Amino acid sequence: MTQELIDLRTSILEGRYEDALAIVEDLEGMSRQAILRNRVHLTFASGTYHRLVSMITLGLGCI
Q1: How many Cβ atoms from other residues are within 10 Å of residue 10's Cβ?
Q2: Which sequence spans correspond to the domains of the chain?
Q3: Are 33 and 41 a contacting pair, CB within 8 Å?
Q4: Are 4 and 23 in contact (CB under 8 A)?
Q5: Cα–Cα distances in Å, from 7 out to 12, 34, 52?
Q6: Burial tier of 23 (Cβ tally within 10 Å: 0-12, 13-18, 19+)
Q7: Angle at the Cα of 62 (from 59 to 63), degrees rounded to 5?
Q8: In degrees to the nearest 10, what's the CA dihedral of 47, 49, 52, 56?
Q9: Which residues lie below 8 Å from residue 32, measured CB to CB, with a gap of 6+?
Q10: How big is the CA angle at 28 (ends 27 and 32), to the nearest 5 degrees?
Q11: pLDDT tens-digit map of 1-53
Q12: What count of other Cβ atoms lies within 10 Å of the Cβ of residue 3?
């Protein structure tokens, strides 16, 4: 992402606004992907937590 920001700055300073907009669109896509990954991770972690609590509550998690 650092390189994209450097390229974005360079594009703007050189007046290459179409290139700058393309970079912004790429960054937005990266952001959306990161949000989706985080949601999937949180959903999985939450489900695992609730299963463990259920197992412990029912005495199935005791060794």
Answers
A1: 13
A2: 2-57
A3: no
A4: yes
A5: 9, 21, 47
A6: buried
A7: 150
A8: -130
A9: none
A10: 115
A11: 789 999 999 999 999 999 999 999 999 988 888 887 887 777 777 778 777 77
A12: 8
**Paired tokens of 61:** 């998690």
Question: The tokens 């990161």 sit on which residue?
Answer: 34
Name the residue type at position 1: M
Site of tokens 């990954």: 37
| Secondary structure class of 19 (helix, strand, coil) | helix
3 state DSSP class of 39? helix
60 CB contacts (<8 Å, ≥6 apart)?
A: 54
Q: pTM for the whole thing?
A: 0.58
